[in-house]
Amino acid sequence: MKYQGYEEKDLEKAFNLVTSNLKHWKEPINIALPADQVKDEELFRTAIIYYTGSYSDFRYLKNGKIRVKAAGYWNTCG
């Protein structure tokens, strides 16, 4: 299955990475990832929308990481 041109397996892999520090995948997303793990920012944005319905914010940090934040499923969908 495809969503916005991305294969579901790729969306799942990206989403699992940005939620890897959470106890539950529906929590708000707030993680700093090495920039080399976020090669396709649009893939990550699409994955977050696909699974949570929330928009995301990406901030490039001086330490070579990218801070990813999103409201998460519970805050967006209930």
| Cα Rg | 12 Å
| Number of helical segments with 4 or more residues | 3
Using the 3D structure, state the CATH architecture: Roll
Return the CATH class: Alpha Beta
CATH topology (level 3) name = Endonuclease I-creI
Largest sheet: 3 strands, antiparallel
Shape: globular
User: What percent strand?
Assistant: 25-35%
The number of domains is: 1
List the uncertain runs: none
Task: Name the structural class.
Answer: alpha+beta
| DSSP E strands, number | 5
Span of the ends, CA to CA: 25 Å
Give the proportion of residues in helices.
25-40%
Chart the SSEs and their pairings.
Blueprint: E1 2-3, E2 6-7, H1 8-18, E3 29-34, H2 41-52, E4 56-60, E5 65-70, H3 73-77
Antiparallel strand pairs: 1-2, 3-5, 4-5
Helix pairs in contact: 1-2
Description:
The protein has 78 residues and is an alpha+beta fold. The protein has one domain (2-77): Endonuclease I-creI, CATH 3.10.28. The protein has 3 helices and 5 strands. The strands form 2 sheets. A 3-stranded antiparallel sheet has the order 3-5-4, covered by helices on one side. A two-stranded antiparallel sheet has the order 1-2. Strand 4 (56-60) and strand 5 form a beta hairpin. Helix 1 (8-18) crosses helix 2 (41-52). The model has no long low-confidence stretch (mean pLDDT 97).
Quick summary:
The chain is α+β, with helices and mostly antiparallel strands and 78 residues long. The protein contains 3 helices and 5 strands, in the order ββαβαββα. The longest helix has 12 residues.
Quick tags:
globular, 5 strands, 78 residues, Endonuclease I-creI, alpha+beta, 3 helices, 3-stranded antiparallel β-sheet, two-stranded antiparallel sheet
